[in-house]
């Protein structure tokens, strides 16, 4: 039920991962299919982060925030805590969660442009 609510049909979720796409090189001269390649945890949270960015650009703030939160949870459970880059990426994802929640609330309340949250307020760039 949660997968359907957050991702639609299961195919919508699996299509986000490179190894689930029809264009993935299952048999290539320079590619060896291994369980490690298929189970690469980076494909999970990186795919969700890309999906979150797409929804964010489309103005689906609530849904983007949910994707960012799930990606942050996956990243947190799989990351090496001593790796600074993982810690920074986790912080980045969580800032996006807060930004998207604020945008969803702003949209829901139909507040004026002056009340609109900006990415810089959450430690994100305005790009």
Explain what this protein looks like in three dimensions.
Helix 4 (41-57) runs antiparallel to helix 5 (61-78). The radius of gyration is 17 Å and the shape is globular. The longest helix is centred in the last third of the chain and has 26 residues, at 84-109. The protein is an all-alpha fold and 127 residues long. It contains six helices and no strands. The protein has a domain at 43-122.
Structure summary:
This protein has about 130 residues and is an all-alpha fold.
Chart the SSEs and their pairings:
Blueprint lengths: L1 H6 L2 H5 L20 H4 L2 H17 L3 H18 L5 H26 L18
Helix pairs in contact: 4-5, 5-6
Distance between the termini: 35 Å
E-strand count: 0
What shape does the CA trace take? globular
Radius of gyration: 17 Å
Supply the number of helical segments.
6
Question: Low-confidence segments, ≥5 residues, pLDDT <50?
Answer: 25-31
In N-to-C order, the SSE pattern is HHHHHH
Strand content: under 5%
Work out the helicity level. 55-70%
Main sheet attributes: strand count, strand direction, barrel closure: none
What does the average pLDDT come to?
78
| Structural class determined from secondary elements | mainly alpha
């Amino acid at each position: 039920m949660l997968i359907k609510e957050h991702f639609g049909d299961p195919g919508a979720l699996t299509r986000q991962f490179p190894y689930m796409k029809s264009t993935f090189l299952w048999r290539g001269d320079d590619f060896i299919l291994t369980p490690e390649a298929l189970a690469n945890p980076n494909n999970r949270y990186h795919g969700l982060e890309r999906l979150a960015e797409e929804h964010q650009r489309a103005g689906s703030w609530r849904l983007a925030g949910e994707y960012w939160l799930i990606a942050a949870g996956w990243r947190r459970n799989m990351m090496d805590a001593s790796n600074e880059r993982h810690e920074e990426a986790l912080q980045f994802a969580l800032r996006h969660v807060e930004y998207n929640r604020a945008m969803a609330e702003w949209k829901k309340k139909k507040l004026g442009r002056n009340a609109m949250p900006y990415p810089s307020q959450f430690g994100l760039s305005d790009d």
